[in-house]
Design a protein that fits this description.
Radius of gyration of chain B: 59 Å
Number of domains of chain A: 2
Helix content of chain B: 25-40%
CATH superfamily of the largest domain in chain A: Response regulator
Largest sheet of chain B: 8 strands, mixed
Structural class of chain A: alpha/beta
CATH topology of the largest domain in chain A: Rossmann fold
Number of domains of chain B: 4
Number of helices of chain B: 14
CATH topology of the largest domain in chain B: Immunoglobulin-like
Largest sheet of chain A: 5 strands, parallel
Number of strands of chain A: 12
Oligomer: heterodimer
Order of helices and strands of chain A: EHEHEHEHEHEEEEHEHHEE
Number of strands of chain B: 25
Distance between the termini of chain A: 44 Å
CATH class of the largest domain in chain B: Mainly Beta
CATH architecture of the largest domain in chain B: Sandwich
Structural class of chain B: alpha+beta
Shape of chain B: rod-shaped
Number of helices of chain A: 8
Largest interface: A-B, 27 and 34 residues
Strand order of the largest sheet of chain A: 2-1-3-4-5
């Protein structure tokens, strides 16, 4: 059965472009221009994944409300947030709405498709009983590449998909400096340097919430970051 | 010309007030003078007419036809105000005149003064004859051998009488005459009506004699004779020549007094200008004396008096143009200068006609009118006050101008400094609370600056806004291109797609550059400060730049040990990015960039030098402004004048500042960031 994706985006051209691209990847796509229509449809039938724009028509933060409502209906549906600005990523992340990823709207369509696929893969992996083959361990860190889950000292660290890919790229080769471009490629995003910096900052913060002495991600000024054990 | 000087100049125009006052005063003065002249003239004419009707009372026995000739022994007899004591001294005569020297005939010097009252004629003779030779008891004048004074009188009835004065001892004496008996032998007899006093002094003797007027006719001769026959004086042999007595007419002064009022002096003179009678008195000198302090500007107020002749000082006669003219038959008036410090004197003369010739003249003298004096004083005060007012006005104007120009100066200083070096705009102007025009100007400045500020603010945010607003359409284009590519374009269309994608990428980098400053401002707000080693950061960052810019030679000089500071290392790296970017952009392809960190006692100095062209000096202060761009040749990358602005933002966030300069010698530019130690 084809996965159904709901796109809630008030900009019609963008909406249609996303829809066309995802349809080409074999998904069934439903598009909505505002929160009301989307919520009505979700009430009838839950999508398998939702891509939600934060500002919807005249509701500047309508996407947040929609996300909350959708989470109330289902705890599992993967949600991808789209923001107009990099600078909003921090704010969105800080809200802990239970979204699985945050992206800026200028994400390229192949990248978008890649992370949609990844999220579905994760859902599938989570449903399957675990085999530990994919788990990478780096000291206290364990990364489950299949389920895209991270744990530090055994406690799960809730990372967004982008963040997960960054951590994954760093931890795969400890001691190697990854520059920003490499991290962007790994995370399937096109971001500017500042955004990578703020992603890394957020990742550190999330680890530090579990372990205040966390400092495994080191900044190599002028070059990038590396994972130290 | 500053406002201060302008207002001062305007204030000085009030000097025209005293000047105009002076002009008016001069005109007033000359009008008053003319009117005083006229009235005095008229009075003199009236008196002259009245006197000419009584010519016989005025001109008595004197043959008025012939001129007075002192060398012939003519004698002016001064009117005396009271009878002097016969004591050999003339101090009590109260006359300004000095004794006149008699001609020395043989070896004797003598001086004579004559005066008269209504009843007597007084003679005063000084003879320089130190040795006193007393008269022997039986001495006769013609025998000589003693000091003697001869006197000859022509009585009013025409009889001629001779007397002599001699004495056995100095003191009161009487005149003596020689009466010849029938036998021709002379006897000396005393003439008790003619009294005298003989005073012997060290230098000679004084003789003061009193002769009843009834004895004195039209002529009188006197001569001092020494014991050896030395003589001084006149003793005319011919009684029709010389020795004429010119004397004030009795009663004339009283008559004159009836004509004149106070403050005027009337004098009647005969055809020889000798005084016949005088009445009235001029105000005494001193009463009219002007305060010396007030005199310096009287030259502005009063007319020029320097051409006026001086007042006549001869005691027995009047002199001057007006007198000469009056005696020639024409009334005349003349202003005279008195002695310094005294009021000027007006003298008007009118001829007294006797028959068909001029018998004499009346001269009226009056000091410069009292009214003129009063006017002078009023003007003096006016002058003082206007001068004071001018000084006051000038002072006020100067103070006002100083105040105004200081306010304008403050305003212009504030206007100059309203746009700070960093491009920030100060909106509050001094003086804007004032209600006057300068206040209005200040408020206008404030409004103008407010607008400018809004505009600058708008420009500053424009980049961010643009990059935000353009993002959605750009995303639409990009996603459309993505779709188009995925749908599978024909090979001949690939080229277009690639070009469109390149264009989009460029557009994206432009937008990214435009929004760079607002992103940095954003991250500054969220930045977290930590202590970090600036030296290590530089080492690592410069290594990165060497990879990033393989063509450029990037040198790093550091103190060599850890340089800790407090701040946001990410921001420091961003700042360094901009500085290195800038330096690499400006230096030649093979140029070198030198990064230097030095530690001063209280700060770090981080400088980035390049080999590029020096920065024009007038731009040095503006390089760190937002949206300021100066690039001689436009490169490939878009520049919006934000790079160095970001450097400044980050430096200021760290409590430091950014400076631009040139290498000495003009071989390159140096950008220095000064950062505080921990």
């Amino acid at each position: 059965m084809r996965k159904q994706i709901a796109i809630v985006e008030d900009e019609p051209a963008l909406r249609e472009n996303y829809a066309a691209a995802l349809a080409r990847h074999g998904y069934q796509v439903k598009t909505y221009g505002n929160r009301k229509n989307a919520m009505q449809a979700f009430g009838v039938h839950l999508p398998d994944l939702a891509i939600i724009d934060i500002s919807l028509e005249d509701e500047a933060e309508g996407g947040f409300d929609l996300c909350r409502d959708l989470r109330a209906l289902s705890a599992e549906v993967p949600i991808i947030f789209l923001t107009a600005r990099d600078s909003e990523l921090d704010a969105v992340s800080g809200l802990r709405l239970g979204a699985d990823d945050f992206l800026t709207k200028d994400v390229s369509l192949p990248h978008l498709a890649a992370r949609v696929a990844a999220l579905f893969r994760r859902i599938d992996a989570l449903r399957r009983p675990g085999d530990a083959a994919e788990i990478v361990r780096r000291g206290p860190l364990s990364i489950d590449g299949e389920r895209m889950q991270t744990a530090w000292n055994g406690s799960a660290v809730t990372l967004s998909l982008t963040e997960f890919w960054i951590v994954h790229a760093l931890a795969k080769n400890p001691g190697h400096v990854k520059n920003r471009q490499q991290l962007m490629d790994a995370a399937s995003v096109v971001l500017d340097d500042n955004t990578i910096t703020s992603h890394v900052k957020r990742i550190r913060r999330k680890f530090q919430q579990i372990d205040p002495s966390f400092d495994a991600i080191q900044t190599v000024y002028g070059m990038g970051y590396r994972w130290v054990e | 010309m500053s406002i201060r000087l302008q207002l001062l100049a305007i204030a000085l125009t009030t000097l025209i007030l005293p000047w105009a006052g002076c002009q008016y005063a001069r005109e007033l003065e000359s009008a008053l003078r003319i009117s005083q002249e006229n009235s005095l003239h008229a009075a003199a004419g009236t008196i002259a007419n009245a006197l000419s009707a009584e010519a016989s009372r005025v001109f008595t026995d004197v043959e008025t036809g012939e001129p007075f000739d002192a060398s012939q022994g003519d004698l002016y007899v001064f009117p005396l105000h009271g009878e002097p004591l016969l004591d050999g001294y003339r101090e009590d005569w109260d006359l300004g005149a000095a004794p006149r020297t008699l001609p020395t005939r043989t070896g004797l010097a003598a001086r004579l003064l004559a005066g008269h009252t209504d009843r007597y004629v007084f003679l005063y003779l000084e003879v320089d004859d130190p040795r006193f030779d007393p008269e022997p008891a039986d001495g006769l004048p013609d025998q000589g051998g003693f000091d003697r004074v001869d006197l000859k009188l022509l009585r009013p009835d025409g009889a001629e009488e001779s007397y002599f004065f001699a004495t056995g001892a100095p003191g009161p004496t009487l005149a003596q005459s020689i009466v010849r008996g029938d036998d021709g032998v002379g006897h000396v007899t005393l003439a008790p009506r003619i009294q005298a006093f003989w005073l012997q002094t060290s230098g000679g003797y004084h003789l003061e004699a009193r002769i009843p007027r009834t004895l004195v006719g039209s002529r009188l001769w006197i001569e001092a004779v020494g014991p050896a026959g030395a003589r001084a004086g006149f003793m005319g042999a011919d009684t029709s020549q010389g020795g004429r007595v010119f004397m004030a007419t009795p009663g004339l002064s009283e008559l004159l007094a009836t004509f004149i009022g106070p403050g005027t002096r009337a004098t009647v003179i005969d055809a020889n200008a000798l005084i016949l009678g005088t009445a009235g008195a001029l105000p005494r000198a001193g009463e009219e004396a002007l305060a010396p302090a007030g005199t310096w500007y009287r030259r502005f107020v009063t007319g020029d008096t320097s051409v006026w002749p001086l007042q006549s000082s001869a005691p027995d006669r009047l002199e001057g143009d007006q007198v000469t003219r009056a005696l020639a038959g024409h009334p005349a008036a003349q202003w005279l200068r008195a002695n310094p410090g005294q009021a000027p004197l007006l003298s008007a003369a009118a001829p007294i006609r006797v028959g068909d010739h001029t018998g004499g003249a009346v001269v009226l003298e009056q000091p410069g009118d009292q009214l003129l004096e009063l006017r002078d004083r009023a003007l003096e005060r006016l002058f003082n006050m206007t001068l004071l007012a001018t000084v006051f006005a000038a002072a006020i104007a100067f103070a006002l101008a100083t105040w105004i120009s200081r306010r304008i100066g403050r305003l212009s200083l504030a206007a100059d400094g309203a746009i700070a070096r960093d491009g920030s705009i100060r909106l509050d102007m001094p003086e804007s609370g004032r209600a006057d025009e300068i206040g209005a100007l200040a408020r206008a400045f404030e409004r103008l600056l407010g607008r400018l500020n809004e505009h600058a603010q708008y420009l500053r945010t424009l980049g961010g806004k643009l990059s935000h607003e353009l993002r959605t359409p750009l995303t639409i284009v990009r996603s459309s291109l993505d779709n188009l590519e995925s749908e599978g374009a024909r090979p001949d269309q690939r080229g277009y797609l690639t070009r469109a994608r390149d264009g989009v990428l460029r557009l994206q980098s432009i937008l990214s550059a435009l929004g760079a400053a607002s992103r940095v401002e954003e991250s500054i707000k969220q930045a977290e400060r930590v202590n970090f080693d600036l030296e290590a950061l530089l080492q690592s960052a410069v290594a990165g730049y060497r990879d990033g810019f393989p063509a450029a030679r990037i040198e790093l000089h550091t103190p060599g040990d850890a340089c800790f500071m407090n701040g946001a290392p990410d921001l420091m790296v961003q700042m360094l990015d901009k500085l290195i970017d800038n330096a690499v952009d400006f230096c030649a392809a093979s140029g070198s960039v030198i990064v230097t960190l030095t530690r001063a006692p209280s700060r770090y100095e981080l400088s980035v030098e390049n080999d590029g062209p020096p920065i024009p000096p007038d731009l040095l202060g503006r390089l760190f402004e937002s949206l300021f761009e100066h690039r001689p040749g436009a490169g490939d990358k878009p520049h919006f004048g934000l790079g160095l602005y970001i450097v400044r933002l980050i430096a200021e966030y760290h409590g430091g500042r950014a400076l631009a300069g040139n290498r000495s010698g003009g071989s390159g530019a140096i950008f220095t960031v000064i950062l505080p130690l921990i």
